[in-house]
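Good morning,

Attaching, inline, the backbone tokens for the sequence recovery test we're adding to the shared suite. The designed sequence is right after.
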């Protein structure tokens, strides 16, 4: 299953119930995120700390991630994070790229929600209509213009990611021009205004490698908060005999690989590995790797 399924409850009415926030604050937990998107982790889990250790009441800049059991979970931007050890516990800093492979589903949901909301808050302090300051409301899920009352909500940018194959035993892997020489992945790009997802797949593949695709099939999705994307995964078929043309300048290299070669690359590790191999694939936190793993297994 490629879809990301949320595991932290998001009860909508609680977002506008400031009384409930205050009543639940003594038991609330808080996730602190620095400006680089890093959080504190202990033994591979997000470190949610007692909210009252930092604030006497819910601060206006905090975002309500959701409710786990009866515990309210919040997130704040905090530049004071440190990867130190306290009381015998090893604390490290990390993000989705560095530690996503070991985070469980609940922690992944917490992290991507926190990043999406905090990044939106950082980027949208003013009303897009008249430029007046916009105040944070609804537990961090809405801003309201102080002049005209316009309501603004967190933005999500849809992007497609496509595993292009030949319908048999070969798949196309590509490397962006600015990536290390061994780092390869599937093709991806943002959905343009007025464009369907299927049209975006066809356009992006044509622009990036010059191929015409058919049989476009949706396979799953993943929130990717860098800065606020929703990755929508597809498979599509192309003819490996067609010439590869890198017309938009994003792709520096692309190669057709057999299923056996993909399995070998998956076994070698990922982009963070120091193994001396000619090709490395994305890490386990990405939908790209899960799509490639599923395609590689399909040949068994």
């Amino acid at each position: 299953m490629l879809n990301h399924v949320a595991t932290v409850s998001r009860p909508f009415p609680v977002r506008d119930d400031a009384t409930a926030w205050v009543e639940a604050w003594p038991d609330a937990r808080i996730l602190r995120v620095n400006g680089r998107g890093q959080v504190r982790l202990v033994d591979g889990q997000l470190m949610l700390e007692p909210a009252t250790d930092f604030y006497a009441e819910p601060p206006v800049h905090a975002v309500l991630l959701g409710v786990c059991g009866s515990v309210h979970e919040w997130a704040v931007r905090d530049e004071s994070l440190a990867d130190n050890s306290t009381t015998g516990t090893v604390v490290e800093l990390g993000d989705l790229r560095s530690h996503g492979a070991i985070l469980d589903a609940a922690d992944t949901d917490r992290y991507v929600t926190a990043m999406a909301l905090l990044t939106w808050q950082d980027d949208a302090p003013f009303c897009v209509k008249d430029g007046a300051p916009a105040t944070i409301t609804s537990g961090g899920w809405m801003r309201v213009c102080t002049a005209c009352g316009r309501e603004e909500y967190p933005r999500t940018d849809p992007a497609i990611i496509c595993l292009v194959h030949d319908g048999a035993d070969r798949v196309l892997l590509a490397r962006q021009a600015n990536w290390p020489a061994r780092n390869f992945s599937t093709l991806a790009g943002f959905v343009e205004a007025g464009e369907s997802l299927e049209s975006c797949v066809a356009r992006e593949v044509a622009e990036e490698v010059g191929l015409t695709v058919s049989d476009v099939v949706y396979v799953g999705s993943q929130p990717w908060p860098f800065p606020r994307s929703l990755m929508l995964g597809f498979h599509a078929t192309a003819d490996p005999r067609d010439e590869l043309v890198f017309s938009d300048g994003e792709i520096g290299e692309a190669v057709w690989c057999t299923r056996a070669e993909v399995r070998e690359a998956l076994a070698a590790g990922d982009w963070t590995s120091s193994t001396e191999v000619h090709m490395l694939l994305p890490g386990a936190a990405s939908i790209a790797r899960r799509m490639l793993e599923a395609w590689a297994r399909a040949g068994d």
